[in-house]
Amino acid sequence: MIDRYTRPEMGKIWTLHNQYNDWLKVEIAIDEAWSKLGEIPSSDVEKIKKNATFSDEGIAKIESVTHHDMVAFTRDVSKSLGKERKWIHYGVTSTDVEDTAYGYRFKKADRILKDDIQKLMDVIAKKAVKYKKTVMIGRTHGVHAEPTTFGLVLARWYSEMKRNQKRFDAAANGIEAGKISGAVGTFANIPPQVEKYVCHKLGIRAQEISSQVLPRDLHAEYIATLALLATSLEKFALEIRHLQRTEVHEVEEHFATGQKGSSAMPHKRNPVGSENICGLSRVVRGHMISAYEDVPLWHERDISHSSVERIIMPDTTILLDYMMHRFTNILNDLDVFPERMKKNMNLTHGLIYSQRVLLKLIDDAGLTREKAYDAVQPLTAKSWQNGESFKKLVEDDPTISKYLSKKDIDDAFDYHYHIRRADYIFKRVGLEK
């Protein structure tokens, strides 16, 4: 991933140097396990732990001849050792080391992503509570519907992130796995105790059965989960983009001192952060397709997945880390305009209360739904076409005034009715006790 979208802590996990370093950790853990089984002298293991090193440049030079990165790695490490070098890569195949190291690296990446998720959820929760009763118009099909609150919008985000968090924890548990079971997964040249020891030492689980590689449905599930997380971020960011439009202007990404919105138009304040989130989400979802196509491999393995994963595994985790961090900051600093929200509610001359009038005619006056609907709809059309107050039309209509008092009509046009169950919803979502 390019530096622009790479945060240092996550980027460091996926460097080539760190890959070799983690491979060496796995190799040493394998030898420690062999030693505990009495197969390798403990003195040799101590020499390996003390002296084993590698050179990125040295590995690259050897690989230019071998065209095999694991062979190049083991040969370069062996150069730093004496006779004990014979125990490097003893009884294992390349993917025993590579996939197990992958599981270990994912564990480190997941620690960052879990923290990212929680931080975003904390900000959403704080903002939701703050704006719980901040009334705004709810929109369906992009058109004014009925009143809601900005806090309820954020509460939906929080609930969605709870689901994302649960899905992520499950997918992370799947991907944080290792296998030390040999060329076709049969433990022919290495006992299961070695795998158990290595995985336990690295803090990952041992996959119950594998071929030469870990089953790639684990990786597909993981990338799909990250893609769904990215899509949630896009959904949230898209809402901010809509609400920041000049004609709406109910929220706005905070515009910092010295920030520029356009090279040509000095007045511009654009939702560039949210647009960035939407764009990067497309990249992450694209990786999901590649991960799914990596699942079917020939027999006990082929190498068609390897080149794909060298790109999508680092890039997906790096991008999601960047996206969550950036969107958390956007939301934390978001400018919210409650008065504009109230003003926008009046753009449709009170038409947003049409259902309340309809239901009052049914509930209080006893009209059939058809008769009540036919009494209200013509007034909504007149209000919309002529820009007249819908409430005044209702009050002046002889049919409706025959059934509803002024008090009834005033009550029908009170937005508090629509948001009266916000406390109940917040408790159900888990935002308040």
From TrEMBL:
It comes from the Bacteria. The keyword Cell division does not apply. NCBIfam families: purB. Pfam families: ADSL_C (PF10397), Lyase_1 (PF00206). CDD domains: Adenylsuccinate_lyase_1. One of its GO terms (biological process) is 'de novo' AMP biosynthetic process. Pathway: Purine metabolism; IMP biosynthesis via de novo pathway; 5-amino-1-(5-phospho-D-ribosyl)imidazole-4-carboxamide from 5-amino-1-(5-phospho-D-ribosyl)imidazole-4-carboxylate: step 2/2; Purine metabolism; AMP biosynthesis via de novo pathway; AMP from IMP: step 2/2. PROSITE patterns: FUMARATE_LYASES (PS00163). Residues 349-430 form the Adenylosuccinate lyase C-terminal domain. It catalyses: N(6)-(1,2-dicarboxyethyl)-AMP = fumarate + AMP; (2S)-2-[5-amino-1-(5-phospho-beta-D-ribosyl)imidazole-4-carboxamido]succinate = 5-amino-1-(5-phospho-beta-D-ribosyl)imidazole-4-carboxamide + fumarate. GO terms for cellular component: cytosol. Its EC number is 4.3.2.2. The gene is purB. GO terms for molecular function: (S)-2-(5-amino-1-(5-phospho-D-ribosyl)imidazole-4-carboxamido) succinate lyase (fumarate-forming) activity; N6-(1,2-dicarboxyethyl)AMP AMP-lyase (fumarate-forming) activity. Keywords: Lyase, Purine biosynthesis. Belongs to the lyase 1 family. Adenylosuccinate lyase subfamily. The keyword Lyase applies. It is an enzyme of class 4 (lyase). InterPro entries: AdenyloSucc_lyase_C, Fumarase/histidase_N, Fumarate_lyase_CS, Fumarate_lyase_fam, Fumarate_lyase_N, L-Aspartase-like, Pur_lyase. This is Adenylosuccinate lyase.
